[in-house]
């Protein structure tokens, strides 16, 4: 997985500048939140979340058909 440096924010930055972080998630599709320099969470934009959800639902549907 390729992570863009600009899409990484610290936990404290997320707390202090939520709106800016949310806008950054819209720009990049997702941002990675670090706590103590370790990955802690990922914030997805709604459009990226929908894209991933649709993909997973489609994949699950195909797996179900394969089982029959």
3D structure, described in words:
This protein is an alpha+beta fold and 68 residues long. The protein has one domain (5-67): YefM-like domain (YefM-like fold, 3-Layer(aba) Sandwich). Helix content is 57%, strand content 24%. It is built from 3 helices and 3 strands; from the N terminus they run βααββα. It has helices spanning 11-16, 18-28, 46-67; strands spanning 8-10, 30-35, 38-44. A 3-stranded mixed sheet has the order 1-2-3. It is elongated and about 45 Å long. The mean pLDDT is 90.
When the domains are counted, the total is: 1
**Beta strand count:** 3
Q: Report the span from N to C terminus.
A: 33 Å
* Biggest sheet overview: 3 strands, mixed
Strand arrangement, major sheet: 1-2-3
Structural class: alpha+beta
Full CATH superfamily name: YefM-like domain
The parts where pLDDT drops under 50 for at least 5 residues are: none
> Which band does the percent of strand residues land in?
15-25%
Report helical residue fraction: 55-70%
**Cα-based radius of gyration, to the nearest Å:** 15 Å
Mean pLDDT: 90
The CATH topology name reads YefM-like fold
Total of DSSP H or I helical runs spanning 4+ residues = 3
- N to C succession of SSEs: EHHEEH
The CATH class name reads: Alpha Beta
Label the CATH architecture.
3-Layer(aba) Sandwich
Shape: elongated
């Amino acid at each position: 997985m390729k992570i863009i440096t600009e899409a990484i924010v610290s936990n404290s930055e997320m707390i202090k500048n939520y709106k800016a972080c949310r806008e950054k998630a819209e720009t990049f599709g997702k941002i990675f939140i670090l706590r103590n320099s370790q990955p802690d969470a990922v914030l997805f934009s709604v459009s990226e979340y929908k894209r991933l959800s649709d993909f997973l639902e489609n994949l699950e549907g195909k797996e179900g058909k394969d089982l029959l």
